[in-house]
Fold this sequence. Notes:
Layout: E1 3-4, E2 10-11, E3 13-17, H1 47-59, E4 63-68, H2 71-88, E5 96-99, H3 107-114, E6 117-120, H4 124-128, H5 132-136, H6 138-144, H7 148-153, E7 157-160, H8 171-180, H9 198-203
Parallel strand pairs: 3-4, 4-5, 5-6, 6-7
Antiparallel strand pairs: 1-2
Amino acid sequence: xxxxxxxxxxxxxxxxxxxxxxxxxxxxxxxxxxxxxxxxxxxxxxxxxxxxxxxxxxxxxxxxxxxxxxxxxxxxxxxxxxxxxxxxxxxxxxxxxxxxxxxxxxxxxxxxxxxxxxxxxxxxxxxxxxxxxxxxxxxxxxxxxxxxxxxxxxxxxxxxxxxxxxxxxxxxxxxxxxxxxxxxxxxxxxxxxxxxxxxxxxxx
Length: 204
C-alpha cells in the first residue's frame, strides 16, 4: 500500500475532511445543535469530490483517511467507502475515519461490517465530556459520543492516537482515558458502558 517516490519520500495515503468540529458547532449532524437550533453543522467538502478522490486514491493503492466527527458526516463517509469498495473490488484497503466521534444508532455495526478503521483520540473525550450535553442535549450526547465499547462489540477496527499537538502525545494518557472516561474532578465515568479494558485500550 502506497508508493515510494525516492529513498527519502514515501507516499502512503491521503487525508480529506467531511466536516468541522463539535467545539465550533461545525460537526455535521442529522439534528441541529441544542445551543444553535438552526445549525446542523458544516459539510466542508462536497460528497462528489470526496467520492472521486477516494476512488482515484484507492485505484492507485493509497490508504484514504477522512475526518468525520458528527453522526451524519460519519454515515456519509461510510456510504462513500462502501461505494468505492463495490466499484473497485474487495481488498485489504484499510479505509479510515479520523475521529469517528459521534455515531448514530447502528453506525458502530457498519464500521465492523465494512472493516473501516475507527481512528479515535480518547483524550479528546476530556474536552467534550462537559460540553457535549450542552451542544447536543444529554440524551443524544450519551447515546452517540466516543463509542469505544460499542465499536469493539461490533468487531470494528479501533485505532487510538493522540492527535498531537492538539492533545498530549503520551499514549498512557489516552489509554487511561479510554478505560476511565472521566475528568480529573469527576467521581464517575461519562457513559460508563463505553469504558473498555486495559487490554483493549493497549491493542487500540
